[in-house]
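Bench log, entry 3. Co-assembly request; chain sequences pasted below exactly as received.
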Amino acid sequence: MSTADSQSLAVAEAAAPVPPVSRSTRKFTARRIGTVPWWFVVPALVFFLFVVLWPSVQGAAYAFTNWDGLSATKDFVGLAQFERLLKDPGGVGAVVHTLLIAVAITVVQNLIGLLLALGVHSKIKSRNILRVALFTPAVITPVATGYLWKYLMTPDGAINQLLGFFGLGALQHDWLGDADIALWSIVATVVWQFAGYSMVIFLAGLQGVPEDVLEASRIDGAGPFRRFWYVVRPELAPAITINLMLSIIGGLKLFDQVWVMTSGGPGTSTDTMSTLIYKNAFQFGDFSYGIAMALVLTAFVAILSTAQYKLLGKQGGTK
Amino acid sequence: MNRYTWRTFILEAVMVLVGVLFFLPVYILVNLALKTPDDQSSPLSPVTNITFQNFSDAWSQANLGQALLTSAFVTVFSVLIIVAISALAAYPLARVTKRWSKWLFFVFMLGLLLPFQLALIPLYTTIRDLGLLGNPISLVLYYAGLQVPFSVFLYTGFIRAVPLDYEEAAAIDGAGPLRSFFSVIFPLVRPITGTVIILNVLHVWNDFLTPLLYLSGSNQQTVPVALFSFVSQYVSQWNLVFAGLVITIAPILIAYFAMQNTIIKGFASGLKG
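Structure output for the full assembly:
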């Protein structure tokens, strides 16, 4: 309804008395629709403020103090905690590991998830059972999958046995005991667990790909890669966005699998922000140092999310 | 191209192989849990001499009965609260076009960006000062707040797509906002409620760090923490450990296999964007 319409309606209403029943009904609906009472948000807001927003603000403030979490006093120390972090090889290492994990998981998990989705979204007869089997790891408790893979990756575990069986003995490793590859072994575990998660989200996106357009482009001679890029990919854009968001967030906060499989070791080669924050705050009582790390992590999350939003926003990633 | 060609067959073979590889660790897990500790055969070779001793040992030694009860309590109440408050909050956020509504939605979305590590320590001290450490209720409170942003995000998007006509009809029939929420909106958004429930049940049931912090030292543990302390004790007795793992993932796996179609569809329908 244009402004002119509503104005003339208002004028007409004021000028000529409208039958009371219809008039009150119209006003009544107009008032009801669009004015859902504001207090509906209050319960959610209270929980959210108490659990997320207020502690985050507190955290941001504590990062500039020397609070140990127990004593009543705390002094403002400025950027001292951040300077400590910069000079602490373990701290810098944890930041680097966390970013490596987040990027590696995001790329590999989504690539595999996409390939699995394309494979399952086809005429193959086993597609339904495959969908169920591939998603199964995603529902298992990460602590349990961590232990499972810790066992599989022991020097005489199933992975090395399988490699030996296929004559690939040269590829055998102490997967979690070797500081150079332990981080990637953890990444592999996480990718195994959540590739099916990405797959299911991609599959839902693939349902929206128009069959006739695909068929037409095939007749016009477009190869599988061009068909994917020009027909399938645009339909997948929302699924790509949500998948990237979930895996970046998941990667940046990774704790369970690391804690169970290596506890950050060997040495500090697999320490992440989460394990180091946990160690510093709850094992060493160094609360504000842990919080300073969390604040740095927050900055990274903000930068990565903005970058992803900008990048995907351009190609119409958010519907 | 709707025929089953030799290309389809090759794809089928490759995909089945990939599926088997993906499922292999789960097979090893169950296989090993059924073997006796002195069985020296490869973890890949099928069990010949099935024993359930590992399961009863793990059950009693890890106090898993208690852990399953605590986890069930925390999961059920957290998810009930999350669904109720998120759906309710999403209704005005989706319908009201005023500025406060847009700002509030933005504030909730900020919660998606804030890593939980930042709030972790200050919230821990608050819970401690409230005397709730060791009490599973602290976890219910925590998840109810933590999971609000994502759930509100899903609900708001879904409610926006629901045509206004139904609410108009309800309003004409004299329904107030609460009535139209419960009788019109909530039933209409059932698919997204399914997604919200599935995602939150998985998150709450599987979460490890928070219960490790909030319940440490108490005799009420959730499943992942009970598992953790159990494995720390029996570190190299893998048959026993795996029996424990199987017991704890069984409820969620059974629920998953029983409702796999609903779960996979519900999971994706809310997330594809």
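Residues 89-120 of chain A form the longest helix (32 residues). Chain A has two domains: 3-62, 81-314.
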